């Protein structure tokens, strides 16, 4: 019987239908090698060196995901990438590398340290879900369940990113299409009061980190969506399958019944792609808005500096003028000192009022 540690999960649906599920980091390298050897012994097939290496060590590019599914000699080999968390904007992914014949599946998970997925429970859930399909081989039904799980996580992650971007858009006062038709419904930063502007600038500073996280995660999600959609389409269109003779009858791993389920997942992927397009548009609008805010802040800083320089210039000129070692008519008058102060105060107060009215200070 199996002598692997508890971190290798064995789902025995039938005497001839088995899923062996290892979790890298919790299972020793020797155990992973044992999974490969057991697969070759049970299937009577020899895994390609590339498949062996990926099962033993992973793809080596967990943070730069590229899902794949290939038909090798008598078995299917593939790897799927799944968002580690669907409640943040971190670009972290878990990876499932697997090989399968019609009735035997071996899979090894490389999980991110912050993953929210309890991978030790997943194989039994997938195996149980596979029983809901009426047709297809055990491994084919299991893989369809794995794809459903993967797409659901991608769906949740894309939905979270979209909701996050909508929230960022509201904070940045990004105009919707309806608002663009009614320019009076939108408050621009130049028309805000000083208090409104302070609150708005604080909101802008608060969303920069979230926006940066979305931009960082989006390329990986896009690749996962694109590659997963391509794999699903290849199976649904019968470009990828594994045919074996059962009782002298050629049997597909993915009969038409399962291909319909995969076609439905392709439609789900298209919905997710439409969300990604909307996220891209919101990111572009957010970037433009932040650039305008930064440009406005720079202009305001220049205006403030210019106003202060101007306010100080006139009093400095008056002081310098009367500081010359010359005889001025005002020096011999009783009110000469008062006149100089009145000139300084009037020039200063007048400029302060002028620049405040123009909102330079």
UniProtKB/TrEMBL annotation:
Question: One Gene Ontology cellular component annotation?
Answer: plasma membrane
Regions crossing the membrane = 304-322, 334-355
Question: What Pfam families does the database record attribute to this sequence?
Answer: CorA
> SUPFAM superfamilies attached here?
CorA soluble domain-like, Magnesium transport protein CorA, transmembrane region
The record's keywords, sorted A to Z, are: Cell membrane, Membrane, Transmembrane, Transmembrane helix, Transport
Record's subcellular location: Cell membrane
Which InterPro entries does this one have? CorA_cytoplasmic_dom, CorA_TM1_TM2, MgTranspt_CorA/ZnTranspt_ZntB
Q: What topology in the membrane does the UniProt record assign?
A: Multi-pass membrane protein
Q: Name the Gene Ontology molecular function terms of this record.
A: cobalt ion binding; cobalt ion transmembrane transporter activity; magnesium ion binding; magnesium ion transmembrane transporter activity
Q: Which family does it belong to?
A: Belongs to the CorA metal ion transporter (MIT) (TC 1.A.35) family.
What protein name applies here? Answer: Unannotated protein
């Amino acid at each position: 019987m199996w002598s692997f540690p508890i971190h290798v999960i064995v789902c025995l649906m039938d005497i001839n239908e088995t899923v062996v599920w290892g979790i890298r980091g919790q299972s020793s390298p020797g155990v992973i090698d044992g999974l490969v050897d057991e697969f070759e012994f049970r299937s009577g097939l020899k895994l390609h060196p590339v498949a062996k290496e990926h099962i033993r060590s992973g793809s080596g590019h967990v943070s730069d995901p590229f899902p794949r599914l290939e038909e090798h000699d008598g078995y299917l080999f593939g790897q799927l990438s799944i968002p580690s968390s669907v409640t943040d904007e971190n670009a972290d992914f878990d990876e499932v590398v697997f090989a399968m014949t019609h009735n035997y599946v071996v899979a090894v998970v490389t999980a991110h340290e912050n993953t929210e997925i309890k991978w030790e429970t997943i194989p039994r859930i997938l195996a149980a879900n596979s029983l809901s399909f009426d047709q297809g081989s055990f491994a084919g039904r299991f893989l369809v369940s794995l794809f459903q799980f993967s797409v659901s996580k991608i769906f949740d992650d894309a939905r979270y990113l979209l909701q996050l971007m909508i929230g960022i858009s509201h904070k940045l006062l990004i105009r919707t299409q309806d608002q663009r038709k009614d320019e009076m419904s939108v408050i621009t930063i130049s028309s805000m009061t000083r208090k409104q502007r302070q609150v708005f600038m604080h909101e802008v500073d608060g969303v920069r980190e979230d926006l940066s996280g979305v931009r960082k995660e989006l390329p990986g999600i896009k690749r996962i969506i694109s590659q997963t959609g391509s794999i699903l389409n290849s199976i649904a269109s019968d470009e990828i399958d594994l045919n074996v003779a059962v009782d002298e009858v050629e049997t597909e791993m993915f009969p038409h019944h399962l291909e319909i389920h995969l076609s439905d997942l392709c439609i789900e992927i298209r919905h997710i792609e439409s969300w990604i397009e909307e996220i891209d548009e919101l990111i572009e609008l957010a970037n433009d808005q932040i650039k305008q805010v930064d440009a406005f802040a720079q202009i305001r800083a220049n205006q403030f500096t210019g106003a202060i320089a101007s306010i100080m210039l006139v009093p400095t000129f008056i002081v310098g003028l009367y500081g010359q070692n010359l005889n001025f008519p005002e020096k011999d008058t009783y009110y000469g000192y008062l006149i100089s102060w009145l000139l300084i105060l009037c020039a200063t107060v007048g400029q302060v009022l002028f620049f405040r009215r123009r909102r330079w200070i």
